[in-house]
Amino acid sequence: MGILDRFRLEGKVAVVTGASSGLGVAFAKGLAEAGADVAIGARRVERLDDTAALVTGAGRECHAAALDVSDPQRCRDFAAEVAERFGRIDILVNNAGLGTAVPASRETPDEFHQVVAVNLEGVYWMAQAVQPHMSPGSVIVNVGSVIGEMHGFLPQAAYAATKTALVGLTRDLSHQWAGRKGIRVVCLEPGYFPSEMSDELPAEAVAIGQQFTPLGRFGDLEELAAAVVFLASDAASYVTGSTLKVDGGLVGR
């Protein structure tokens, strides 16, 4: 196998959650362009058609269906649907997430629990759901955030707590499943990228984020998709339990 061949995903089947907008769309498109068939899920199922068109436009097959990752049974059913259609699951990109900006003095239990249910519990339920359908060499990519390692520029206690927790969850699952199952589990920590979450940021927060990023700009979605392709491919076959920051130098400044 040549070095560039290690980055190809022909014959692989990938699952991307939260694929109705932003990062999830970019991940699905990038994985398809690298050669994988892609299953996409989101609560806003009506918005999946555009993502599916990008996958099929890259010459790959796509399965699209409603998915609420906070529902463990729906996670299991979705994984079974994908396995029945494609015969296997090789890659899971746990991308579905909620972002909030609520002062800790006013955040309600329901608001906090909703973020935890999607950003942390949903990642766990999806990982549980896909692993029985995975063979050795498969990989789970948990999408965290640099906010899990640094203070944000907005009050984001629930969001920050869940993204920090993903690092520990990634480390533990990688330890449990590497030897017995041969499944790699890694965490991707994006910095500032265009998304629905970043679109809702106040202009002053955007300016501060750019100011404190050594590269001086938001990232391009293709730069982040390329990182996911790397982590999902044989180019990263000896990488597990690790966290990859793609943040323009923000955390390491």
- Give the neighbour order of strands across the main sheet: 3-2-1-4-5-6-7
In angstroms, what is the radius of gyration? 17 Å
The CATH homologous superfamily name equals NAD(P)-binding Rossmann-like Domain
Element order, helices and strands?
Answer: EHEHEHEHEHEHHHE
Count of the separate structural domains? 1
How is the main sheet built? 7 strands, parallel
Distance between the termini: 37 Å
Total helical segments:
8
Put the structure in a nutshell:
The chain has 253 residues and is of the alpha/beta class. The chain has helices spanning 22-33, 48-57, 72-86, 109-130, 157-181, 196-199, 203-212, 221-232; strands spanning 13-17, 37-42, 62-66, 91-94, 139-143, 184-190, 243-246.
Salient structural properties:
253 residues; alpha/beta; Rossmann fold; 8 helices; 7 strands; globular
Give the SSE map.
Blueprint: E1 13-17, H1 22-33, E2 37-42, H2 48-57, E3 62-66, H3 72-86, E4 91-94, H4 109-130, E5 139-143, H5 157-181, E6 184-190, H6 196-199, H7 203-212, H8 221-232, E7 243-246
Parallel strand pairs: 1-2, 1-4, 2-3, 4-5, 5-6, 6-7
Helix pairs in contact: 1-2, 1-8, 3-4, 4-5
